[in-house]
Amino acid sequence: MSAYSSSGNWSSPQTIVKAKAGTPIAATSINHTLVGWGDQDVQVQLYYLTDHDVIQAWDLVRSNSANGSLSPLGYKADPNSSLVSYWPSLVLQDDKGNLEEIFFSVNPPAHWGNQSFDARGLVGSDLVELPTTTNYSALSVFYQRDDGKLAEWGWAQEPTIGPIPPRAPLGGLAVARSGSAKSEIYILWQDATGDIQVYWTNDQTGWKGPSSFPALRAADNGTAIACLTPSTWYDVPMSQDPRLSRCYFQVGGVLREVALSGSDWKIVGNVPMS
Question: What are the pLDDT digits (tens) for 1-10?
Fold first, then answer.
C-alpha cells in the first residue's frame, strides 16, 4: 500500500504496509485537539484488509507511522465488502451483506466495539459515511440496497434517495451549511456512460439531482471516488474552509482532483503519480 502526503504540494508515493491485493481502503483523521488528547497533532488512520479479510488499521502522525490498536482484535469483513470511515466510526458489510459498524469509544476506559445495523446493502457495493450535522450529533451511511436504490442509514432514519447502476462507484462529502446545524451532503456516483453524477441536499427541500457537471465527466469506467470532509466533534463545529471540498477520481488513467465551488464543480488539476 502506498500513500501521498501533502503540505501544499503532493509528494512522491511512499510504501507503508503490505495489504491484500485489491483491498478496499478507508481513510479518516483524528484531530487530537478536538477530542481532548492533550496535543495538537492530526492523526491519519488508514483501514485495509489482510489476505484473510481481517481489518487492519495503520496510524500516521507527523512523520511517524505504526500499526493501529484495532489491528490485533480480529474483526473481519466480507471478502467483497467496501470500507468507509468518519472517525471514530468504521462501516463495512458482513458475510450476509448487513451493515456493521466498528467504533472507538473515547470514554474511559477507551475501547473498540462493534454493532450491526438493521440494514442490508448490495454485496460488494460502495459505502459512504458522513456527518449530517456540523457538530457530530448525527452520522449517516449511504449505500446501495438490493433493489438498486441509493439509501441513507442514519441514526434516526433510512430514506431512499434515488436509483444508481448496480455497484456504481460512490463517493461523498459534507460541508458546513450556512445558518444551520445541518451539513450540506453531496453524493457522487458514476453512471453507465462514465460521467459522475451528483445527488445533494443543501436546504430544507430534500434531495436534488441527479446532475452532472463538466468537471465530473468522462471518468474512467469503474474508477474509485474519494472525497474530503472536515473533522468535527461534539460542540466543535465543522470548518467552513472551502479548500477542503475536494474529490478525486481517475480520468484517462490519471488521478483527477476537483473542487466543489458554490453550486458548481471545478477541475483543480491532476495528482502526480510518480
Answer: 444 444 456 7
